[in-house]
Write a structure and sequence with these properties.
There is one protein chain. By secondary structure, this protein is an alpha+beta fold. It has one domain (3-134): Beta-Lactamase (2-Layer Sandwich). The protein is 43% helix and 20% strand. The chain has a 5-stranded antiparallel sheet, sandwiched between helices. α1 runs antiparallel to α5. It starts with a helix and ends with a helix.
């Protein structure tokens, strides 16, 4: 999958999740390519356009711990329940070194999961992960 197709898929998926949840599940997302020495932001959408890059390394700390334990394969996803505020709540491995990080800047996943609408709203996220499993971001 190319970057434009990946962006389109992410935007459509998060839109479906919002529709099913009756409010945004994630109001912020970033596509990144992580390398051993450095990384690159490929796309961003959210309320912190001017400042998200400055705190990005700190904002992925809870997910980084989860990723180091699980060693995700392309298409796998992870959530952390206690990533409050600007800390990212979820990710999908999109390709060999590419990830989608998602965040709700006002609620954490433990709070989101309390809502009964979460059950249906998570289905598009799982579908997106399968899309990248079969067609990784190159």
């Amino acid at each position: 999958m190319n970057l434009d197709s990946a962006r389109t898929a992410v935007i459509a998926t998060l839109g479906r999740m919002t529709a099913l949840f009756n409010k945004p599940v994630f109001d912020e997302w970033v596509l990144v390519k992580l390398a051993t020495a450095s990384g690159a932001i490929l796309a961003y959408s959210g309320p912190r356009t001017e400042s998200y890059q400055k705190g990005f390394k700190d904002d992925i700390v809870p997910l980084r711990a989860e990723l180091e334990q699980r060693h995700l394969s392309t298409g796998d996803f992870a959530f952390v329940d206690t990533a409050a505020g600007t800390r990212f709540d979820a990710c999908i491995k999109l390709g060999p070194a590419a990830y989608l990080f998602c965040n709700n800047t006002t609620r954490d996943m433990a709070d989101i999961r309390q809502d009964p609408l979460w059950r249906e709203a998570q289905k598009p996220f799982a579908h997106l992960s399968e899309l990248f499993r079969t067609d990784p971001l190159e």
